[in-house]
Amino acid sequence: MSIVQAQNLSHQYGSYQALDNVSFEIQEGQCFALLGPNGAGKTTFVKIMLGLQNPKSGSLNLFDQKAGIAEARAQIGYLPEKFSFYPYYKVKDTLEFHAAVSGISKSQSGSEIELAMQKLKITELANKKLSNLSKGQLQRVGIASLLLGNKRLLILDEPFSGLDPIGIKDLKDLLRELKKSNITLFINSHILSEVEPLCDHFGILNRGQLLVVGEKNQLLKGKSLEDYFSEIVQ
Fold first, then answer.
1. What would the pLDDT profile of 63-91 be if each residue is shown by its tens digit?
2. 62 is in which domain, residue-wise?
3. Fewer CB within 10 A of the end CB, N or C, for the chain?
């Protein structure tokens, strides 16, 4: 089943062409990485996925519905590059808030929150205020919030940002676990060495144009993702 369908998607900011006739699909259960240098159009694409930006032309559908409508957004979990929330909230309070807006009943949310904190190894931080956490700890809280509710598509914008080597390994292990449960992952990242072992499909944007898209092994043909990316973009 196709989870994401972009068809002739274009968007401009004044005279600047952020996306230029972009078309591709992401199937259910895939781990898809959208790659590209700064200014390539990746952020604009994510904004349209989340319903924060309407395209100038073309279409973007999620779960066979127009991106941005409530039914589509309810099935998405989104982690920005810098997770932030009210600094005076404690970790557990923050996750309780995210569980509530995800439509999880109070009787069910407690067990889901405990499990999410265990998976992200932040149980001991439950009663700490967000203002007292490091950037890496905040990132773990943000990732834990994604695990609450029955999300079918997780959008992760630079998910390895701020994580130490142990945190990166833990996150990669968690994402592999999520892949096994048929959750679709959309990763937007500059760290190609971390993305390569996780993703099975990827696309490369540059100056708003989709240069390539497809299955990883068929595109790389034995090359590293970093070498292939450099060749394509240059």
1. 999 998 888 888 899 988 888 889 999 99
2. 1-23+30-75+152-162+171-182+190-234
3. C
